[in-house]
Structure formats: C-alpha cells, structure tokens
Amino acid sequence: MGETTEWITIGLQEELDTYNLEGKWNDYIGVQKCVIGTLKEEGFLENNVVVNEKSGMVVRISAKGIKETLGKGKRFQNLPKDLKQLKVASLRYLPKVIEKGDVLADDVPNVHGETALYAYVMSYIIIDGMNYGIRVAVKKRIGDNIFWIHNIDCNEKSPELLDLRSVRIGN
C-alpha cells in the first residue's frame, strides 16, 4: 500500500439501513434478494463498468458477482454476523475499490479447473473508524472481466493497519 492509497470511509449502520435486512442475517438467500433488489432499483447494476487506474483492467460489476459474494458456505452464509454486515456495507463502494485498488495478482489460474483466470485487487476502507482491507476477485473471461467476490480483512501487514485491535476476520 503506497502513500497515494485513498481510504474509503463508510458508516456501517447508514449503509445497512438502506437494504432492510433486519432479521435476515441467517438467510443468505433473503440477504441476496434484498441487496440485489435494492441495487437494481438504484441503478447500481446498470452498465457498472470500472477501470482500474493503475493497470487499465476493465471490470464489470453485475448481479451475478453480488450473488456470489453473498453466497453459501464460507463466502457469506457461515460467516459471523459482524463480517456479513461489513461485506454488505462495502458493496456500494466496489467501483471505487476496483478503480483505486492495487492489483495484487493477475492471470491467476482457477483452482477449480475452469478456463477463466482471476485477478485480485486490494484496497482499503474505514468502517465506523476501524481500518479494513478489501480483496476483490475478478473473473477474467475472453472479452469480459467481471467482479466475482470480495473479502474483508483486517490486521494487514502495513504500517497504517498495524494498530488494529482485532484479528483477521476475512477468509
């Protein structure tokens, strides 16, 4: 993380209130429907194409990627509620995360044997005064790179994050 890294600041409760998710945190499909429905109503998913400033990589954010990041198992369903909330609260900021982030790796082979390659972008946010890293996976396909999933990390090995009180909570 260099000196030019821009931190994104988020108010957790203000973001969560826009999705009407009270009582749904243990129903990942219910969370997907509320979040994707809200983002569609806002026009967030219409032609949401972002260019990473540092690499020139073009990434499209779609409902499919949002659904994947809010998916079953360790992606979302089995996470603790506080981590689920952090993931949901950061979704509207994905364009800026992708645009301003550092490309950590590019053209990484898919471990599941699919032909698509992956790129990984890292950026940083402040949610309610706590510092977090966001790692975004971009699925690279011929003619179309799409946002695939994002994870929230803390306790990164950088001077700005060394003072965090919490331990790594991402996967």
Q: Shape, please? A: globular
Tally of separate helices: 5
Number of strands: 7
Radius of gyration: 15 Å
Largest sheet report: 5 strands, mixed
Distance between the termini: 20 Å
Strand content: 25-35%
Number of folding domains?
A: 1
Percent of residues in helical segments?
Answer: 25-40%
What sequence of helices (H) and strands (E) makes up the elements? Answer: EHHEEHHHEEEE
The parts where pLDDT drops under 50 for at least 5 residues are 156-171
Could you report the average pLDDT, rounded to the nearest whole number?
Answer: 86
The helix-and-strand class reads alpha+beta
Could you explain how this protein is built, in words?
This protein has 171 residues and is of the alpha+beta class. It has one domain (8-153). Helix content is 25%, strand content 29%. It contains five helices and seven strands. Strands 1, 4, 5, 6 and 7 form a five-stranded mixed β-sheet that branches. A two-stranded antiparallel sheet has the order 2-3. A hairpin with an 8-residue loop joins strand 4 and strand 5 (117-127). It is globular, with a radius of gyration of 15 Å. The two termini are 20 Å apart.
Give the SSE layout.
Layout: E1 8-10, H1 12-17, H2 28-41, E2 49-51, E3 58-60, H3 63-69, H4 81-89, H5 94-100, E4 102-108, E5 117-127, E6 130-141, E7 144-153
Parallel strand pairs: 1-5
Antiparallel strand pairs: 2-3, 4-5, 5-6, 6-7
